[in-house]
Amino acid sequence: MGDTVKGLPLFSSNESEPLFILYQQMKSTAREYISAFLRFPFEAVRGFSLYGLKGKYLAAVLCIFKSVPFGITLPPFGRISLYNEFLSIYDNIIEKELRCDEIEVSLKKSTRPVIVDLGINLGMTVRWWFSLNQNAAVYGIDMIPESLDFTTERLKTIPGTFNWTGIPSAISDHKQSFEIQYDDPLDGSNSVFSNEGKIKRTVQADTLDNLIAPYTLTDVYLLKIDIEGYGALALRGADALLSMCRYIILETHTPEEISEANRILTEKDWEIFLVKGRSAFYRNPALLTK
Predict the structure, then answer these.
(1) Could you tell me how many helices (H) and strands (E) the chain has, helices first?
(2) Domain 101-171+206-288 adopts which CATH fold?
């Protein structure tokens, strides 16, 4: 019968469908807020243990405010002022969705590790790589130039000098161009198949191998891929990169993406050794045994 008030349905059978949908959305939103509010004490303690009072503020932004009253400088990430920066720190770093002990321990010990970060958005993982090893060389690839510029500016708010290269391009298994639409260039859900939004742009796409070829890389420690469901497409044009890469972190978005990625990497003797939420972690035994 659905929701009732004193035994009577809140919506009669001829009630408008949009009104019912709005009611259900309001219920869902209320439940989410209540759940987040109840989670705040735990997240505040955890945030404080990691980042002190600023960690408690991070928890409040995510659990109570659901917005950012004011930006802060939070080592090792530098300046953070966007809600999605706070959310990324929580999901990817605190919750460790994109983290792996095996990879991070080895990364810290490497002399000058090379990292290719595909789909950088707000540059949160770029900042994290440098926090693990300030001598790293990071090549960030994103089809939205504003993401690269944003990351460059954020790195300036962190003490130190960083070997950072931004590469503006979309990724495909061959050279082509796409017409995309979006509203916010810093929205992490933008993809080459975005077809809604006020901003229209033509983006050039190329293979991973072609994009990194000018930098004459010979040893890549890590390839991170987060491109809204098209990670397997990127791997199709990355034979040279895969032959010199030690680890891959792939954030998956569809069953088809993970299935195709597994097929491509298995055929090249890579092995998947960890799955955490939507993230799959691969290693190249041929290079790790050297």
Answers:
(1) 11, 14
(2) Rossmann fold (3.40.50)
Largest CA distance in the chain: 73
State residue 17's pLDDT score.
Answer: 64
Q: Which helix (H) or strand (E) holds 40?
A: helix 17-51
Q: For the chain of 290 residues, list the mean pLDDT of each consecutive stretch of 10.
A: 45 53 58 78 94 96 94 98 96 94 96 96 97 98 95 98 96 90 83 79 94 97 90 94 97 89 95 94 90
Tokens found for residue 213: 């070829």
Residue ranges of domains in the chain: 4-94, 101-171+206-288
Distance CA 78, CA 103 (A): 23
User: Under DSSP, is residue 116 helix (H, G, I), strand (E, B) or coil?
Assistant: strand
Closest CA to 39 of 60, 19, 55, 24: 60
